[in-house]
Amino acid sequence: MTTTNQHDGAADGTSTAGPYREVLREAFVRRYEDGADSWSEEPAMRELVPLLCGELAAGSSVIDIGAGRGRDAELLLAAGHRVTAVDLVRLPDWDALARRYGAAASFEAGDFADMAAGRTYDAAVDNGVLHHQDPADYAQYLANVRRRLRPGGLLAVSLFTTAEELAEGVLNRAEDGRLSRWFNEREARELLSGAGFTVIAVRTVRRELPGLAYLLVLARRDA
Ligand SMILES: C[S@@+](CC[C@H](N)C(=O)[O-])C[C@H]1O[C@@H](n2cnc3c(N)ncnc32)[C@H](O)[C@@H]1O
Predict the structure, then answer these.
(1) Which atom of ligand 1 is nearest to the CA of 127?
(2) Does domain 2-7+14-221 have CATH number 3.30.1200.10?
(3) What is the spatial distance between Cα 88 and Cα 86, in angstroms, rounded to a whole number?
(4) Distance 128 CA to ligand 1 centre (A)
């Protein structure tokens, strides 16, 4: 069940994929240009990769979907993993990472949905990305993530939630048109198991913003 706030398109089941993708890209371009990417320096955002690293074999290959400035990519690279980072927005921070980590780091600007098929990874990080997609596209988005992982590969995803357990999810739309969905644990588990993943860990991390939290989910791709 989903509650919709200030939203007039996607939650009725009609995909607004094309126009919404452009709205999302423009909104994120603007946020980075304005230096309004508060998430890049938010401590609660950096709890996801340590959760994943506890389960990763040395020298794993990881795709960081919606990598932003590359804060998680940097943590993974420093831990000895190889990272492909993809984001709608090409960010200047990538250059220093490319210089420091050479062939272990690669970067692609564009929509994850449009990435050329082919390579698979040991793990995928989705830190704050899925919950901004059009809900009508969640299944396709997760099918793409699944295709990128080898069987048994790990997905670490961070979703908006509230500090107190939500009875049902909430879909918000910001003034710039970006959608943000708050999930509860049951919904997150159902979404991932329906997409061919087995959830192996769930953690709630409180944010500094009153009443808000992230739901960190670690899941394994079924065979
Ligand atoms: C809230 S930010 C999080 C950034 C980064 N993961 C972090 O931890 O700092 C979400 C990021 O996802 C990117 N993004 C959103 N939808 C995307 C998509 N469909 N394909 C690629 N990147 C996407 C945005 O441009 C933005 O940089």
Answers:
(1) 6
(2) no
(3) 7
(4) 6
Q: Where are the domains of the chain?
A: 2-7+14-221
Q: Is 72 in the pocket of ligand 1 (CB under 6 A)?
A: yes
**93 in contact with ligand 1, CB cutoff 6 A:** no
pLDDT value of position 17: 57
Helix axes 71-78, 93-101, angle to 10 degrees: 10
Residue with more model confidence, 55 or 14? 55
Cα separation, 213 vs 12, in Å, equals 26
Q: For residue 62, give the H/E element and its range.
A: strand 61-65
pLDDT band at 218 (very low <50, low <70, confident <90, very high): very high
Report the separation in Å between the CA atom of 130 and the middle of ligand 1, taken as the mean of its atom positions: 9
| Section 37-57 average pLDDT | 97
- Please tell me if the CB atom of residue 180 comes closer than 6 angstroms to any atom of ligand 1: no
Tell which atom from ligand 1 comes closest to the C-alpha of 113. Answer: 19
pLDDT at 38 over 60: yes
Band of the pLDDT at 117, cuts 50, 70, 90? confident
With tokens 């994850």, the residue in question is 112
Q: What are phi and psi of 187, to 5 degrees?
A: -65, -40
The pick from 42, 88, 209 for probing ligand 1's pocket by mutation, whose C-beta has the most ligand atoms within 8 angstroms, reads: 88
